[in-house]
Design goal:
Helix 2 crosses helix 3. Helix content is 33%, strand content 30%. Strands 1-6-2-3-4-5 form a six-stranded antiparallel sheet, covered by helices on one side. Strands 8-7-11-10-9 form a five-stranded antiparallel sheet. The protein has a two-stranded antiparallel ribbon with strand order 12-13. Strand 10 and strand 11 form a beta hairpin. It has 243 residues and is of the alpha+beta class.
């Protein structure tokens, strides 16, 4: 009987199983792109398969995903080779299961090879991380002569409230007559404000919680400045570097 057509019209596994169900003997030639697989049947039983250097069940694993190509059955073809020794249904199930396992393993390998995308941390988040161990800090701001670079606040305060103060301090530091001002403590009606210089003509301003001993605040400010000195501030992107 004539059995030929395209894999777009009839799925590859349907073709493979049709020969089995019709109890035919012969060779089923399947072509897809540059690949060509040949399957041999004896009274419907699949006994041998070849595709290039592959043979047996490896051929079924390769062709189960073919969705384009042609097929042709030759009832006169015979072979003495036997590379498949299980019924067709079990062979197809094995091929599908192995195909799925290999795909999953390949996806896992590819995922492991792709480096994780690091979340970009904003300047405010970097500053918040830097003060995370300093319980006395109510508000903190890093600024330079052009304005605020990063701000953060806790306990209901707002870091951006310090922008006017930063502007005044920038003017003070630029006009200070005794050389570069390294640090200052301001005690006003709203509480204690500490100011310390950073590299690259930058400053950190910290508003301390009320009631905290000045000695503890000064010690904590020293640790904060040491952390911030390891950071590089990029006005366009973020506060980058290790805290």
């Amino acid at each position: 009987m004539a059995l030929n057509g395209t894999l777009e019209e009839l799925a590859v596994l349907d073709v493979v199983q049709f020969v089995n169900q019709a109890h035919l003997s012969g060779s089923l030639l399947l072509k897809s792109g540059s690949e060509e697989a040949q399957l041999f049947y004896r009274k419907g039983g699949l006994v041998h398969a070849s595709l290039g250097a592959l043979s047996g069940l490896e051929v079924l694993i390769r062709i189960v995903d073919w969705t384009a190509g042609t097929f042709n059955f030759d009832a006169g073809a015979v072979t003495t080779e036997e590379s498949i020794r299980m019924d067709l249904h079990r062979a197809v199930m094995y091929a599908l299961k192995t195909r799925d396992e290999r795909k999953l393993e390949s996806e896992k390998r590819q995922a492991a090879e792709v480096p994780p995308v690091e979340k970009e941390i904003s300047p405010d988040e970097r500053l918040a991380e830097a003060i995370s161990q300093l319980e006395f800090v109510r508000q903190a701001v890093v600024f330079d002569g052009d304005g605020v670079l990063a701000s953060t606040a806790r306990n209901g305060a707002h870091g951006d409230e310090l922008a006017p103060l930063c502007k005044s301090l920038a003017a003070l530091t630029s006009d200070y007559p005794r050389g570069r001002l390294r640090r200052a403590i301001l005690d006003d009606e709203n509480g204690t404000v500490l100011v310390s210089c950073l590299p690259r003509k930058r400053w950190v301003v910290v508003v301390a919680e009320r009631g905290v001993a000045l000695g503890a605040v000064m010690a904590g400010m020293g640790r904060l400045v040491a952390k911030l000195e390891t950071l590089v501030l990029d006005r366009q992107r973020a506060l980058v570097g290790a805290v």
